[in-house]
Structures are given as structure tokens and as C-alpha cells.
Write a structure and sequence with these properties.
Number of helices: 3
Mean pLDDT: 69
InterPro entries: 6-blade_b-propeller_TolB-like
Pfam families: DUF5128
Protein name: 6-bladed beta-propeller
Organism: Nitritalea halalkaliphila LW7
Order of helices and strands: HHHEEEEEEEEEEEEEEEEEE
Radius of gyration: 27 Å
Largest sheet: 5 strands, antiparallel
CATH topology: Neuraminidase
Length: about 270
């Protein structure tokens, strides 16, 4: 009897100690390790460090208010900035406004949606890609209109210098699963604006939504490879995987190289 009483006493003490312990789901206790490999982005540098050298304040009295900046181009003594509403603006390196290049409008010497620029100081011109008109317009660095290209097959979104050849990256607006939207490439001569279109698209994709620029953007040439960035369309989980992607160009095609995964407001990285 004493033995049974002693056993019951220890059982009671054990249960009393455990009643305050909170049970957690196994999913919260489990961990997952993701290996990050970023050597392909380092180039020849042993360390991948971004250092802030200087900042320029553009929100000063006398400067036009900026709304949506699409592109930048830097020279030794000035820089150019494309704002969707303000157009192409010129600043000195201290951030003082020097003037506007071109005007927004429907005329042949005007742009409607300026989306990207290319600065060619050798030819003393700046090229403006008009997304809506599907043309490229050239101005002198003093602001004088020079020329307008013929209409190109897609909506231009960026310029890219491939060795001595200037490329215009474009997107098509509509597409189906049978005939996908495409990324198109054309070469352009900065002085004459003569355009030569590639025979076949660089990349094709399908989307149930219509957005400006949900396609690969050229990032840079790293380790002799051209990298492209595919931004995800936020909130479109039904038609897109919830991840951002970097593509590497191989044999004329884009292959997935890096994922930036965004889940529950926390950014995770899966470098492959």
C-alpha cells in the first residue's frame, strides 16, 4: 500500500510539472538550411562588398519634383535622369537642375512614355526609348532634337551595349499560351538610328495579366555571362510562382540561375 501511494505521488508531481509546458507544432521546431552560393556574381573580386561613396539630394528648391524614375545615365560632369512624368532631365553632379531634354507629346520630336536612355558622349547624343510609340529618339546633349527611328517590333524597355553593338531590348504586350509574349532584341546605330531586328525572339513567356515590363531585364555581364532579372508580379499567385529569378544566357537561350523567393514578408535566398 505504501509502495502504491509513493508511485501515485510521483505521477502527480510529474503531471503537475508538465501542465505548464506549452506544446509547439513540429513545423515550428523544424529547421531548413539553405546553402547560398554567390561566386558567379563576385567576378574577380574576393569580397562582395557594396560601399556607399556619395549621395546626391535632388529634392532641393528649383528642381522639378520627381515621381517615377525609370533610368539614369552618368557622365563626368553631369547625369541624365528619366522620370515618367517629367521626361528626360539633366543635372550637374551636385544635384542642381540644368534643364530638360525633349518634351512629352505626340510629335515626331517628342516622347510619350520615356522608359530608358543611352548616353553616347562620343556622338554627343542621348537616345530615349519611347515605350508607347515603339521608337527611339535621339537628342544632342544640349537638348536639340536629332532624329527618330523607324518603329521597332516591340515596346522598348532598356538599352544594352554588347561590345561595340548597341542593343534595344523590347517586350510584346499581348500573348496566349499558344502564342506567348516575347522578349525581342534589335541592334541600333546611335548616329543614324538604323535598326536591325533579330530574326527570332530571345525569350517567350505567358501571363494572364497585362503589365509594363514583367520580363527579364539585363543586369550585367558577369564572368563573361549576361545576366537577366525577372521580377515577379506581386499578388498574382494564381498565375506566377512567387519568386524572382535571374537568368543566365546560354547558347541563345535563357536558363534559370538564381531565385529570390519572397514569402510572408520575409525574403529568403536560394542561389543555385
Amino acid at each position: 500500500m505504501k509502495h502504491i501511494t509513493r508511485v501515485l505521488f510521483f505521477i502527480f508531481i510529474f503531471q503537475f510539472q508538465n501542465c505548464g509546458i506549452k506544446e509547439f507544432p513540429d513545423s515550428l521546431q523544424s529547421t531548413k538550411t539553405i546553402e547560398i552560393k554567390r561566386d558567379f556574381l563576385k567576378g574577380d573580386s574576393p569580397e562582395f562588398i557594396i560601399e556607399i561613396i556619395d549621395t546626391i539630394n535632388l529634392e532641393v528648391p528649383g528642381n522639378p519634383p520627381l515621381t517615377s524614375v525609370h533610368d539614369l545615365a552618368f557622365s563626368q560632369d553631369f547625369f541624365l535622369l528619366v522620370d515618367r512624368r517629367q521626361g528626360l532631365l539633366k543635372f550637374d553632379n551636385k544635384g542642381s537642375f540644368l534643364g530638360k531634354i525633349g518634351e512629352k507629346g505626340e510629335g515626331p520630336d517628342e516622347y510619350t512614355i520615356p522608359y530608358a536612355i543611352h548616353l553616347d558622349e562620343k556622338e554627343n547624343v542621348v537616345l530615349v526609348a519611347d515605350w508607347q510609340k515603339m521608337t527611339v529618339i535621339s537628342y544632342s546633349l544640349e537638348g536639340k532634337f536629332e532624329s527618330t527611328s523607324n518603329k521597332i517590333p516591340g515596346h522598348p524597355i532598356s538599352f544594352y551595349k554588347d561590345n561595340d553593338t548597341l542593343l534595344v531590348v523590347q517586350e510584346t504586350l499581348n500573348g496566349t499560351k499558344e502564342k506567348p509574349r516575347q522578349v525581342l532584341i534589335s541592334s541600333i546605330e546611335p548616329k543614324t538610328l538604323e535598326v536591325k531586328n533579330w530574326e527570332r525572339p530571345l525569350y517567350g513567356y505567358h501571363s494572364n495579366y497585362t503589365h509594363i515590363h514583367p520580363i527579364p531585364r539585363i543586369l550585367s555581364r558577369v564572368n563573361n555571362a549576361i545576366l537577366f532579372y525577372m521580377p515577379i508580379n506581386r499578388g498574382e499567385i494564381s498565375s506566377h510562382r512567387d519568386r524572382d529569378t535571374i537568368f543566365r544566357k546560354q547558347e541563345g537561350r535563357l536558363t534559370q540561375n538564381t531565385y529570390f523567393i519572397s514569402l510572408d514578408l520575409t525574403t529568403h535566398f536560394n542561389w543555385e
